[in-house]
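Write out structure tokens for XRE family transcriptional regulator.
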Amino acid sequence: MRPPRSGLVIAMPSEDSVPPANGPTPRQALGARIRAERAARGWTTTEFVTLLNSAANGTVPGSVDRSALYRWETGRVRPTRWLPSIAKVLGISVEELLGAGELLANSPRPGTVSAPAFATAGIGRMMGVPPFGSELPVDRRTFIGAGGVAALTPGTMLALVESLGRSPLPEEVRSEDVDHVHAAAAALKGLDGRYGGGGIVRDAAIAQLGWAVRLLDRRCTSSLRPQLLTAVGLLAVVIGAAAFDSYAHDDARKVLSLATTCAEEAGNWGLRAHALSWRSRQETWCGNLQLGLTYAELGLARADRLLPVERAWLYNACARGLAKMGRLQDTLAAVGASDDAWAHHDPGREPIPVWMNFYDHAQHHGDTGHALCDIALYGGPAKEAVTRLQTAVDGHTSNVVRSRALSRGRIATVLMATGDPEEASVVGTTALAEIGRLRSRRAADDMRVLHQLADPHQGNAAVDHLRERIVVAVTQA
């Protein structure tokens, strides 16, 4: 029998169980990378394991299931034999997949590296970093670099964000919850007006809509439910309009349809009209002119139940569609009906509802001016179009930069089409400066139209300069 060894016997942990000082273990980093790559492709766990088993095609004993994938993604087990199949499904190399985890695994562990001289010399303070320009020892550079990669790769950060919990829904909806949805709609509308409907505005909007819609499944008193439906419907209108602006048209149609349903369940004719007006405008913009006109007319089906400001907004939607059809007299009649409705608006007697609080003197002139702009290209009243659009530009504040930029761009379009390229270039250049700060596909497309209308005026220095700037701006949009 072998005698026991003398001295203290220490059970050494495996390498993967020792966390590095500045980040997850290599196994955790690898799991986070796998999860992030899967999530980026929109695959569910079921879809991913199906793809993995198909890619392995018998090259790996057994098969993988969702529980195994969970253990991999949470860093509990390292999928060593499955790495080639995972990399194949993700369309990357094994080396790319291993990335930060392998770098970290090969870096020195805490306690195995002697402290370099500068770390004890009192220079470098909190981080133990030598003076600028001095040389880091190779092992120190490797450790710092590997730790940074493990902690800061986009995949790792995405997995971290995805792992964050959601706010729990209340068991029963309170009036404060309805207020929160209204506040979210107001905040998102402000961001959309200033910056356009794309980018972070769109992603934030989708997350908030999901939370609001889930409230509809919670307990709610019969007296509060119409208010909740109205709040969710209003949020959906804001998000649908933002999706339209960023050309996520399928999403916009779904969300605006949801808004219409919420309004109808709530018995809110004004919000229903507002949602249908946006649906009309989107279809008109997309060239579905008959459908666009139908939505606007559906909104006006019970005009007696609408406020004058709501009727004006819907008549404008009609005018926009009729103008795109080239129906000059019908467009003028719709603009006239809008003017009449707006003239009967009395804010002291009939306060503007929250979903129409954007509609003021400037908005009315801009909206009607856009319709007149379209028929000006067919010989309509160009001067009246420019006058109305200029009134909108003068009245719009910095809270609605997109509306101001769109109106200014339309002024340039009318001027260019009717033979004043010099002034059109001045106005267009100013519009471009604002559009360049937006994420608005609609504004970019308006500039493309202006670029086309400027073709006959090539050789004019101001026009050529404008055309060059438009090319740069729409490329970056």
